[in-house]
Amino acid sequence: MTSKTTYKHTVQLSEIDFSLRATIISMIGYILDIAGVDADSKGFGIKKLGSKNHSWVISRMALEFYRLPYQYEQIQISTWVNDYGKLLTVRNFTIADEKNDLIFAAVTQWAMIDISTRQPLDLRYVEEYNKYLCAEPSPVENPRKITAINPQKTVIHNVVYSDIDFNRHVNSLRYLSLMVDMLPIELLTTANPTHVEVNFLRESQYGDILTVGCEQSETKSLFEIKNSSNIAICRASIEWKK
Amino acid sequence: MTSKTTYKHTVQLSEIDFSLRATIISMIGYILDIAGVDADSKGFGIKKLGSKNHSWVISRMALEFYRLPYQYEQIQISTWVNDYGKLLTVRNFTIADEKNDLIFAAVTQWAMIDISTRQPLDLRYVEEYNKYLCAEPSPVENPRKITAINPQKTVIHNVVYSDIDFNRHVNSLRYLSLMVDMLPIELLTTANPTHVEVNFLRESQYGDILTVGCEQSETKSLFEIKNSSNIAICRASIEWKK
Asked: B175: how many CB neighbours lie within 10 A of its CB?
C-alpha cells in the first residue's frame, strides 16, 4: 500500500486559449503526462515496459471540471491507483490550486498491451503492482459506456504524422482535440465544462480516414469518431455550464 | 550585460514519435517555451507585457539540428539575447545533452506588437531591455528571406480552435506542424533534419482557410502556407541528411 503522489505545475502560455484559461485538452494532457511520470517513478511505466515490448493504453475516463486554471497559476496534480483486475487498472487524479481548492478530479481506466500483437495482458501478473495500490476511493464515479450518436455535423480527418504517438497509433489527446475543434469557439472560450466522459474503443493508424461527428444540445456535446469501415474509434460527452 | 541562462528538461513520451526521438516540432516547442519563461524571469515577458496590451511575436528562425534527443534524455537549453534594433530582437539558443555535447542551435528574431492594433512597437524604448543583453555571438547565421515555392503537393486546412493561441492567431508551431505533416512518414522517422529556416510573414485567424504547399527534392523540403487571398503567411525550408 502507498499514498497519493503530488506533482506541481505552472500553467504555461502554450496551455491556454485567448480566454487565458487552460484548455480542456491541456487539462487532460496534464493527467496523461502525470500518469506516465508517476508510473515510471514506481517502476511500472513505459520506461520499464518498453524493454518487454509492453505499453499502457487508456480505455475510459470520467472527468469533473470545477474551474479552468488561468495562465501562470500554480497547480498541484495528485494521482493514485486504487484498483486493478485482469484487464483494467484504475488511476485517479485531483488537481488543486494554490489555495488548495479542488478545481478538477478524474478517474481513468487503463489496459496493458503487447505492442506487437496489440492484445491486452493480464494485469494480475504485473510484478510488484500490488504494493503501489492506495486505498483512497476514486473522486469521480467510474466512466460509463457511451452509446452511438446522431451527429448534426461531421468533418473528415486524414490521420497525419503529428496525430501519431510513440505507440504508433493516434494519440488519445488528439481524438479529443478533433472533437473539441467542432464546437463553437464562443462556447469554448466563455462556458465552463463540468463533466466529461471518454470511451477509447479502438486504435487508428497513420493514413486512416476518420469521420468526426458532433451532436450538440443546450448543455451537452456528444461526439463519435468512426473509421472508414464505419467502426467507432472513440466516443465522448462534454457537459457545460454557461 | 548578463550571461546565458540554462534550463533543464527531460524528453517526455508526448514529445517523441515512434522512432523514439523528439520530433522537430517538439524541439522548436522547447525553444519557444523557454523564450517565454526566460523573458518572464527577466521582466520583459508576456506576464508583464500583457498588462500593457503588448505581446511578442516571432518573425524568423534559423535552426541547426546535430541530432534529435531520445525519450527520457536530459537536455540543457541555454538562451541569450544579443541584439535588438527598432523592430527586431535576436534571441539565441543551444541545446546540449548530458555529456554536454551540442545537439541543436538556433537564432530567432522577434517583434513586439500592440495586441489591439497588431502593429509593431519600437523596441528601443523597452524599459531595462539593454541590461539583459549578452555579448555572446549567435551560434547560427541569421535566417534569410525564403522566396515563393512551386508546390508539387498542396493540402487545405481550415483554421480551428486548437490552432489558435493566447495571441488570438494561429500558433507559430502549428504552421510548422501543418508543413511537417505533408512529408513522408519514412523520411520523418528515419532521416535527420540538419538545417531549418522559417519566415513568419503574416497572422492568420480562426476560420481562415489555408493552403499548405510542399516542394520536395532529394535533400530539401520547401513549404509555403497561403491564405484564401493567395497571400503567403509562412514559409519554411528543412534540409535532410539520410
From this structure: 23
pLDDT band at A130 (very low <50, low <70, confident <90, very high): confident
Q: Are residues B181 and B105 in the same domain?
A: no
Task: Write the CA distances from B36 to A5, B29, B42, B77, B101, integer angstroms.
Answer: 29, 11, 10, 13, 25
What is the pLDDT confidence band of residue B202, given thresholds at 50, 70 and 90? very high
Residue A169 and residue A75 share a domain: no
Same domain, A134 and A169: no
Is B36 in Cβ contact with A12 (below 8 Å)?
yes
Q: What is the pLDDT of residue B46?
A: 86
Q: State the number of CA atoms in the 13 A half-sphere of A132 facing the CB.
A: 21
Q: How far apart are CA A209 and CA A204, in angstroms?
A: 9
Residue A36 is nearest to which of B13, B32, B162, comparing CB atoms? B13
B51 pLDDT tier (thresholds 50, 70, 90)? confident
User: Which CATH number characterizes residue B189's domain?
Assistant: 3.10.129.10
From B178, B224, B179, select the one nearest B201 (Cα to Cα).
B224
Whether the CB-CB separation of B16 and A166 falls below 8 Å is answered with yes
For strand B192-200 and strand B209-216, is the pairing parallel, antiparallel, or unpaired?
unpaired
* Residue that terminates a domain, selected from B138, B169, B204: B138
Same domain, B112 and B180: no
Q: Are residues A159 and A52 in the same domain?
A: no
Q: Count how many Cα atoms sit within 13 Å of the Cα of residue B127 in the half-sphere of its side chain.
A: 7
Q: Which residues of A touch B177 (CB under 8 A)?
A: 162
Cα–Cα dist A64/A73, whole Å: 19
Counted domains in chain B: 2
Among chain B residues, the shortest Cα distance to A168 is held by: B18
Residue B30 structural domain: 1-138
A26 and A126 belong to one structural domain = yes
Quick one: B180 and B232 in the same domain? yes
Where residue A147 falls among pLDDT bands split at 50, 70, 90? very high
**Domain boundary, last residue among A119, A138, A157:** A138
| Best of B10, B13, B154 to mutate (most A CBs within 10 Å, chain A) | B13
Min CA distance, B62 vs chain A (Å)? 21
For residues B122 and B55, membership in a common domain is answered with yes
B157's enclosing H/E stretch is strand B153-158
